[in-house]
Amino acid sequence: MARILGVILPDDKRIGYALTLIYGLGWVNSGKILKQVGIDPGIKVGKLTEEEIKKIIALLEKGTKVEGDLREEVNSNIKRLKEIGSYRGIRHSRGLPVRGQRTKSNSRTKKGKRKTVGALKKEVWAKLDQQKTQTATTASPAKK
Fold first, then answer.
1. CATH 4.10.910.10 fits 72-111, yes or no
2. Which helix (H) or strand (E) segment is 78 a member of?
3. How would you write the pLDDT of the chain (144 residues) with one tens digit per residue?
4. Would you list the domain boundaries of the chain?
5. Which of 55, 70, 72, 101 might form a disulfide with 97, Cβ 3.0–4.6 angstroms?
6. What is the CATH number of domain 2-64?
């Protein structure tokens, strides 16, 4: 298994795909990098030589922000937006969609599981009332 920038690439995958496993690299950038280095994107990772892997690493370190550096930059940008109190920063801190998506009927990914407010069935109300009366009767003899 080849290790590039702290990411272990599986030997049985093609290098064109395997480079997309690195945070910040997609298909287009992967193809550009392989073209610059002169490697066929169809070659499996296990068949790459050490020299070819070193060429890829050198090219990535020289010109591209990936993995930790990119994550750090994105997090610092979000933190800056929160500190200056911009609309986008407030949406980030509240855990809501940032880019203008509707929230009345969608955005369950950001908001999480539904929380029902004010709509309870009769059986649920009866159980709540019963629990209140039990706690009130058990609490009142203790006061005497």
1. yes
2. helix 67-84
3. 788 888 999 999 999 999 999 999 999 999 999 999 999 999 999 999 999 999 999 999 887 888 889 999 999 999 999 999 999 999 999 888 998 888 888 888 888 887 777 777 788 888 888 888 888 787 666 554
4. 2-64, 72-111
5. 101
6. 1.10.8.50
